[in-house]
Amino acid sequence: MAIDGAFLYAIKNELSQLIGGRVDKIAQPSREELIITIRASGGNKKVIMSASANTARVHLTTATVENPKVPPMFCMLMRKHLGSAKLLGIRQDGLERILYFDFEAMNEIGDMVTLTLAVEIMGRYSNIILMNSEGRVIDSIKRVDAEMSRERLILPGIRYEYPQRDDRISILTATKEEIREKLYSVRNDDLAKCLVRTFEGIAPLFARECVYNCHDGDILRDDMTDGIFDRLVEYIFTVREKMLGGKNDFTVLIDKDNALKDFSFADIKQYGELMTVRHFETAGETLDYFYSERDNFSRMKQRSADMLKLLANTSERISRKLAIQKSELMECAKKDELKMKGDLINANIYRIEKGVENIELENYYDDNKPVKIKMDTRLSPSQNAQKYYAEYRKAVTAEKMLSDLISKGEQELVYIDSVFDALTRSVTEAEILELREELTEQGYIRRRGAKQKSGKSLPPLEFTSSDGYRILVGRNNRQNDTLTLKTADKTDIWLHTKDIPGSHVIIFTGGTIPPDETIREAAVLAAYHSKAKTSAQVPVDYVEVRYVKKPSGSKPGMVIFTNNRTLYVTPDGELAERLKK
Prior knowledge:
The protein is of the alpha+beta class. It folds into four domains: 5-140, ibrinogen binding protein from staphylococcus aureus domain (ibrinogen binding protein from staphylococcus aureus fold); 176-281, no CATH class; 306-446; 461-579, no CATH class. Helix content is 37%, strand content 21%. It contains 13 helices and 22 strands. It has helices at 5-15, 73-82, 176-183, 191-198, 204-212, 226-244, 283-332, 335-347, 381-424, 429-441, 477-487, 516-528, 573-579, and strands at 22-30, 33-40, 43-50, 57-61, 86-91, 98-106, 112-120, 127-131, 137-140, 250-254, 260-264, 276-280, 358-363, 369-374, 461-464, 470-473, 493-497, 505-508, 538-544, 548-549, 560-561, 565-569. The strands form six sheets. Strands 15-16-18-17-19-22 form a six-stranded antiparallel sheet, sandwiched between helices. A five-stranded antiparallel sheet has the order 5-6-7-8-9. The longest helix is centred in the middle third of the chain and has 50 residues, at 283-332. The protein is elongated, with a radius of gyration of 36 Å. The mean pLDDT is 92.
């Protein structure tokens, strides 16, 4: 998911609007990141430059970050040399992953000099390097000495060395014959891998998209026909035309777990329904969204990790207890045998002598078939009978208690599963905080200190059906209760996945009968906002709210209902996005 040279080309073109502008501010919010504000075209634009291995990038940004109270030394050096400097131009050598910003600045004695800021986007070797007009390094955000690299030193006073370029060709200029010649000069392999070895500045993601647009499935280079090659070149030329015209199809790929996986300057279709593709107008917007949302997702994962562990441990503990209780309940099923033995001993007490270990009697409950009964030699026959009766009564009591405990345990397991589902579907920190509060109220998390004054609760997710009906979807169990039991009217329609954890969904009917399409769309939303999000043909129950009741003492989100009908639908994220208000 690193920026490739082709994406950097689009960034360079986007940044060209700043040429002629002057540096207004320079900040260093973190150890390997700079934000330079340039005043151009009557307004200020911020450029973020990062040399971090995981987030290396350079682009226009609208993000607001907090700066340290004391600027780092490199930031002070940048302010000294580039404060009020004029941006003369931005260069890129072919499709290399380096941008060179040329500035005109005033030196310490008042002379105008040209300084160059190189932003190298090269994974863990990424760097931000300031150099003078003679190409010597003034300083860099990461110094590289001989112990770190024998091939390329980056230290003050050393002449800047351009990274070596290989003989790959440019997607921006190569002709069809040049593509053919270079493509067949590399070692035979999967076509996508051969494309990466052929063209400079393209990532494996785009290479696979090239193959996807010319052939159904993977293919070796040597198995490529002339027809496949022609379609490949046609697609490459189409993308090239968009690149040169500044009309890129910027996209971000999001998986089923809402994790951001990758981004590209081209429309990515190779994953089909496995990925959601989000489109953006500019490179800056694309990268702002990708890195901010990825940071948010990572932060959310960290904040929810303890809750996920708690829920998993709780579920395992309840399951173990249920297994023991069900085993004990099966033993209680033998209670009638205990009573029968007591009855047979009483009926034959005159025949039984004290001190026998076993006795065989006729079972008048079963056609007088002989049955062997174990006796306690320390007790009289009458006491043995009473012992079996006592064990019978104990089994009867245990059976009732165990049945109640198993029922409560299974309900609690369903509840824990529902919270787990809601947590895995959460996309904001506010949703996670509400779930944490729910678990605290239910006693699963110990509250530390006094309860904080709660802020405004999150509203349910809101949608509008294609027929114009308002549809609300609960985000968590407490919200489900409020939505179904307080917000909805008796004539509104309630929907929920059948025997599957998920959100309560309400169609607000206004006393009318909603069309079948509205019910189907609401059912799709119920399936999409459930544990069955990635399944197909998911059963969804629907019924008027008047038939939905909450049992006394039940967990949040738990309801019972009657008079329901069931609809089978397949979750559809695109439909959910279209219906979202």
